[in-house]
Specification:
2 domains; 6-stranded mixed β-sheet; CNF1/YfiH-like putative cysteine hydrolases; alpha+beta; binds zinc ion; 8 helices
């Protein structure tokens, strides 16, 4: 196990904000289309009956004032979520542009009221209101299933044999609740999906480099899975058992108010979600994980943890 100090020095290194200049590692592609940049999972593009994409931050009509006081610029962004700071008509226009860029203007967008739950909905027609939950699945053509994120992990599933798809929103609570495995379970029940046939794209979300968590999160994961330790860097056992890895701060001779910061671990949510899927018998060779960290790439993604006042990306999948 890494010591806390070692984990932290790695974190500082990774935390330096950097612009996105390189190409995403295969099998991912950043496609320029209709003035937008859309991230795609290449293995999904070989199905001509399928459309999918992960939106990015630039080039929308929403105006975001930087929350960073050193940065006074206002920025045009592709915010796809109805956030407090944005105007509804701008979000609608961004959504229209995104769907147009995907070539899916005829497909109604099906969204969720996301609640960090384990609730997955099977959809066969556009619902009147976004249902409450964190996953959507369908075998019907003509629907564009969407989840919204700004650090949480978006996951798209496709079952090519039965032509069924799912979109999943998985933050730490959803991961503890095993939402990805439960959505796959619903596909097995409703569409006779076999996990061995399934392809999974785990999209851009906060990386282990930037996702510091405290004992509350560590304890939940430790209780949920014996593998959980492998998804964390830092003093996992100490935080999981509730003991303080920095006991007796007076021994360090620090004056009051200058105690060392409370210990933290770094969580790899993408690895945890990939493990949920492999445990449910999805083949590791069919799971494609984007290495892009939303916190590390402010030019390309929104990050709630980094900015608080920010937009939402959308990850969509549908059967044409
Ligand atoms: Zn990062």
């Amino acid at each position: 196990m890494l010591s806390l100090s070692k984990a932290c020095s790695k974190t500082r290194e990774s935390r330096r904000a950097r612009s996105f200049t390189g190409a995403p590692a295969p099998p991912w592609r950043l496609r320029n289309v209709s003035g937008l940049q859309i991230l795609e999972s290449l293995p999904f593009t070989r199905f001509n009956w399928l459309t999918h994409g992960f939106s990015t931050r630039p080039r929308g009509v929403s105006v975001l004032d930087s929350s960073d006081p050193r940065n006074t610029r206002t920025e045009k962004v592709l915010n796809l979520g109805y956030t407090d700071w944005d105007r509804r008509e701008r979000v609608d226009e961004n959504r229209r542009r995104f769907v147009h860029a995907l070539g899916a203007t005829e497909m109604p967008l099906v969204t969720l009221r996301q609640i960090h739950s384990d609730v997955a909905h099977i959809i066969s027609a556009p619902p009147a209101e976004p249902p409450k939950g964190d996953a959507l699945a369908t075998s019907a053509s003509g629907l564009l299933l969407a989840v919204q994120t700004a650090d949480c992990i978006p996951i798209l599933l496709v079952d090519p044999r039965h032509r069924a798809v799912a979109a999943i929103h998985s933050g730490w609570r959803g991961t503890v609740a095993r939402i990805a495995a439960k959505a796959l379970g619903r596909m097995q029940m409703e569409f006779a999906t076999k996990p061995a046939d399934v392809l999974a794209a785990i999209g851009p979300g906060i990386g282990q480099c930037c996702y510091e968590v405290g004992p509350d999160v560590v304890k939940e994961f430790a209780a949920q899975s014996p593998q959980a330790r492998s998804w964390f860097e830092g003093p996992f056992d100490a935080l999981a058992s509730g003991e303080d890895p920095n006991p007796l701060p007076w021994l360090t001779m620090m004056p009051p108010g200058h105690q060392p910061p409370p210990p933290r671990c770094h969580l790899d949510l993408k690895a945890a979600n990939a493990a949920l899927l492999t445990d449910a018998s999805v083949s590791p060779k069919n799971i494609f994980v984007s290495e892009l960290c939303t916190f590390c790439h402010p030019d390309l993604f929104f990050s709630y943890r980094r900015e608080r006042t920010t937009g939402r990306m959308m990850s969509v999948i549908g059967i044409i």
